Amino acid sequence: MILPILAYGDPVLRKKCVEIKPDYPNLKELIQNMFETMNGAFGVGLAAPQIGLAIRLFIVDTAPFAEDENFSKEEQEELKAFNRVFINAKITEESGDDWAFNEGCLSIPYIREDVFRQPKIKIEYQDENFKPQVEEFDGLIARVIQHEYDHIEGILFTDKISSFKKRLIKSKLVNISKGNIEIDYKMKFPILKKKR
């Protein structure tokens, strides 16, 4: 089932999320709905707060990036195959020289900005069967994970841009929060449009 994605301005997007236990109600169904929602919006990641749940759960599927010809065949294959569920994640290390990449977010449609992040991460998490995992990632996969991880920490990519750029996009953010945009996927806006 495709769920509405919360738009910029919703307070849930600013909450530091709580851990969940294996008996979390309807978890398998929730994860399936999140994948359907993400795919329906042509995303590469989705975090639970984006669908209104302040829990430490996010999903990543980098397959859409595999079409980019700027990546080597090996990188394309890796991106195509990467599909993961992260529960109760904690990034324990970030390393390397910051690099910029133009990021966007399903909760903040039509806004893209260069965000600097470190290229390598180490992350501890539980998979969808609550089996503990410790893995290291780098490059684009690490970046998508960092972006989604920020969501469960109550951080948005727009928090990581300069104050000058924030001023430039302020009116666009207000329009998103008010629902003054045309979007081709299901969204829920914190400030409803006034009826005329």
Explain this structure to me?
The longest helix has 16 residues, at 163-178. The protein is built from 4 helices and 9 strands. With 196 residues, it is an alpha+beta fold. Strand 5 and strand 6 form a beta hairpin. The two termini are 32 Å apart. A 5-stranded antiparallel beta sheet has the order 2-3-4-7-8, sandwiched between helices. It has one domain: Peptide deformylase (Peptide Deformylase, Alpha-Beta Complex). 27% of the residues lie in helices and 29% in strands.
Question: What is the CATH-assigned architecture?
Answer: Alpha-Beta Complex
Number of strands: 9
Beginning-to-end CA distance, first to last residue = 32 Å
Strand content: 25-35%
The ordered string of helix (H) and strand (E) elements is EHEEHEEEEEHHE
How many domains would you count in the coordinates? 1
Shape: globular
User: Helix/strand-derived class?
Assistant: alpha+beta
CATH topology: Peptide Deformylase
CATH superfamily grouping: Peptide deformylase
Main sheet, how many strands, which sense, barrel?
A: 5 strands, antiparallel
Helix content: 25-40%
Strand order of the largest sheet: 2-3-4-7-8
| SS summary, helix count | 4
Low-confidence stretches: none
Give Rg in angstroms: 17 Å
Mean of residue pLDDT values: 95
CATH class: Alpha Beta
